[in-house]
Specification:
- The protein is globular and about 60 Å long.
- By secondary structure, it is an alpha/beta fold.
- Helix content is 17%, strand content 26%.
- The chain has 6 helices and 13 strands.
- This is N-acyl homoserine lactonase family protein.
């Protein structure tokens, strides 16, 4: 089987934020206690990434849309730039730069699948506003993301997505042979994960914020400071674990600085 007959996946880092670890991991062992009230906060790297997928049927998919170049001004009304500054991004990291590196225009992408509509995953989605691309979100995510008035609700900034035509899924959906969208809610109303069954590399599950970090996965799973529905989150983690154990999948966590350094990333460093 030649590479042209295989699904090809490229992980593209799109800039690194920093944040207090507690947003990502509520770990009692790291918290201040009566005996150790002086414990210090941990200010950690929070890398972001998107995934570009080329299918042997000729279709192209982009998973997520990264953080915005103008994060300081765009995030200012919400105040969230103070908690999640994108303070470690190179010119090559921004999504528009990544598209140029791949010799792609937005209209070349058949599917833009947004794991959820938070400000660090959907910020560049309007690059596809005038494209013929099908943009897919979970139906509960769409419902929740339009359920409020004003600029933002938490990390949902309505102007990131309010003019887009959003198609929805209501169940686990095989979008193309070997490419399945998994419903893994909890982090938000309708957070999704992406399962890709590769010929050489085996199954990969891109968990997005269903699992921030390897430490989040456990066992036991450790929840985060930003979880909409904790019960649903734990159920989604075990759903991912069941698929991972059944398929021996590699789980790619949403914001794990250690893991992203171990993975093959950037144009020309693909998985097949």
């Amino acid at each position: 089987m030649s590479d042209t007959d295989k699904i090809k996946v490229t992980i593209l880092p799109t800039g690194t934020m920093h944040a207090d670890l507690t947003w990502l991991l509520i770990d009692p062992s790291r918290m201040a206690t009566y005996q150790q009230p002086e414990k210090q906060r941990e200010w950690v790297e929070v890398p972001t990434h998107v995934v570009y997928l080329e299918h042997p049927n000729g279709q192209k998919l982009m998973w997520d849309a990264g953080v915005p170049r103008d994060w300081e001004t765009r995030w200012a009304p919400s105040g969230l730039g103070q908690f999640f500054p994108v303070d470690a991004a190179t010119e090559d990291d921004w999504l528009d730069s990544r598209l140029k590196q791949l010799n792609l225009e937005p209209n070349d992408i058949d599917y833009l699948v947004l794991s959820h509509l938070h400000l660090d995953h959907a910020a560049n989605a309007k690059l596809w506003e005038k494209a013929d691309t099908t943009i897919i979100v979970d139906e509960k995510e769409k419902e929740g993301a339009f359920s409020f008035d004003g600029h933002n609700k938490g990390a949902h900034i309505k102007s990131d997505y309010d003019t887009l035509a959003l198609d929805t899924i209501s169940e686990d959906t095989e979008l193309m042979p070997g490419v399945t969208i998994l419903r893994t809610p909890g982090h938000t109303w309708g957070t999704m994960s992406l399962q890709v069954d590769l010929a050489d590399s085996g199954t990969m599950i891109f968990a997005s914020d269903s699992l921030y970090l390897k430490e989040s996965y456990g066992p036991p799973p450790i929840a985060a400071g930003i979880v909409y529905d904790t019960v649903a989150w734990f159920e989604s983690v075990e759903k991912i674990r069941g698929i991972q154990e059944r398929t021996d999948a590699t789980v790619v966590f949403g914001h794990d600085a250690n893991q992203i350094r171990e993975l093959r990333t950037g144009p020309g460093n693909s998985y097949t």
